[in-house]
Amino acid sequence: MPFVESGVVYPDAEDALGLYAETFGCSLQEARDQLRYEPGLQSACDRAPWWALHESADITLQAAVLAHGIAETQPFIGLSEGLLPGAFADKLRPYVKLVG
Fold first, then answer.
1. How far apart are CA 49 and CA 29, in angstroms?
2. pLDDT tens digits for the chain (100 residues)?
3. Cα–Cα distance between 13 and 36 in angstroms, integer?
4. Which pLDDT score, from 0 to 100, does residue 32 have?
5. What's the whole-model pTM score?
6. 53 with 8: CB under 8 angstroms?
7. Closest residue by Cα to residue 20 from 11, 62, 5, 49
8. Best CA proximity match to 69, nearest among 90, 36, 96, 47
């Protein structure tokens, strides 16, 4: 379940798996099968709220921190840093969003 703080929705690992499945046209189970390291994915998802709290990061930086965390931890098999700025990053950018 996404984490909501001060009107901002932050994805968790399950949300990121759903975005992966949507991006690559596979089922949630197939996305899970591509997951190399779930704690790494959750760690990447936890970075944006940490930056918001401790670094007063704006929403744009928070989204960048999320995408960078996934690129850095490489929790998915075959999803390298070179692929992240493409299709998957496009799905991640609007995910850290304001709830209106």
1. 27
2. 566 666 777 888 998 899 889 888 899 999 999 999 999 999 988 988 888 888 888 888 888 888 888 888 888 887 655 555 456 656 665 555 544 4
3. 12
4. 94
5. 0.72
6. no
7. 11
8. 47
Q: CA 58 to CA 73: how far, in whole Å?
A: 22
CA 87 remoteness from chain centre: 13
Residue 55 φ then ψ, to 5°:
-120, 5
Distance CA 76, CA 99 (A): 28
Please name the amino acid found at residue 26.
C
The pair of three-digit structure tokens given for residue 35, joined into one six-digit string: 């997951």
SS (H, E, C) 30-66: HHHHCECCHHHHHHHHHHHHHHHHHHCCCHHHHHHHH
Q: Where in the chain are the domains?
A: 3-98
